[in-house]
Amino acid sequence: MHFNKKPIMLRITMVFLMLLSLQSCKNQNQTIDLQGHRGARGILPENTIPGFIKALEIGVTTLEMDVVISKDNKVVVSHEPFFSHEIAITPKGEIITLENEQQHNIYQLPYEEIKKYDVGIKPHERFPLQQKMPVHKPLLIDVINEAENYTTKNNLKKPYYNIEIKRNSEFDTIYHPAVKEFVTLVLEQINMSQIANRICIQSFDIETLQMVKQMEPQLTLALLVENEKSLDQNIKNLGFTPQVYSPYVTLVNQKLVDNCKKQNMLLIPWTVNTQEEILEMIQFQVDGIITDYPDKLKSVLDSLNISVF
């Protein structure tokens, strides 16, 4: 089979040039917040305690995760408010399909039932190297307790937690509570953990961030962005300047970097997985990087003598 080698050669050349540029800037004392996306999704099952422990073992600064609510008002770590066909198997061992996944609604299940679903055995098509194991979706408080205990036991620096509240106003009372109740339930768990100073609440949902700011104004907040509106427009829509601006990786450019600095916001893009993307974000001197492959990012940072804070 014949294929065009030019795009591959162009990418290799770009990576090589970026490496040369970065090597020449080694002495700038750059530090980066290394965030493990859903733990270490490229390596172990997403949003699970083994995945978060693996991320800590690698040396992440921050554990990034998502939370939803169960029928009995437990705060569950999960990217979707239902069991995704990509990762889940029913308590009866049945495969969940794209067509029926939303029927497995976490908000309609008590946590004791949620624990019976497996989310670690099924091969992940997009992450073929992910290690498989039987595992269930954990509670937020259990993730925090396990992470705190692991770092204490192993003499490691305490991690930060970047917690996304997965709220969509169209799904209120269907897949999760209305915004005030949702936020209240999450904040109760954060206050119970007694580590609010190491927690950031992130969301795409403006009402969620506004509610958190109203209820706990001292918490660090991050606006997640995947639209192509300007930074100024997104901040205007939010109604205040958050501590963190967190756009999709392809939205990052020099203008955005400069604007974030002017407004004293940290810039932390997601989800940065390829070597080319990692090097480009380092070149932009972003404040943090959210990645499915914290091992890959840590290796690049170490090779460039860039510290994690």
UniProtKB/TrEMBL annotation:
InterPro entries noted in UniProt: GP_PDE_dom, PLC-like_Pdiesterase_TIM-brl
SUPFAM superfamilies reported for this sequence: PLC-like phosphodiesterases
Signal peptide: 1-26
PROSITE patterns assigned: GP_PDE (PS51704), PROKAR_LIPOPROTEIN (PS51257)
UniProtKB keywords: Signal
Cross-referenced Gene3D superfamilies: Phosphatidylinositol (PI) phosphodiesterase
Coiled coil: none
Gene Ontology process terms (BP): lipid metabolic process
The protein's name: Glycerophosphoryl diester phosphodiesterase
Species of provenance: Bizionia arctica
Gene transcribed to yield this protein: glpQ
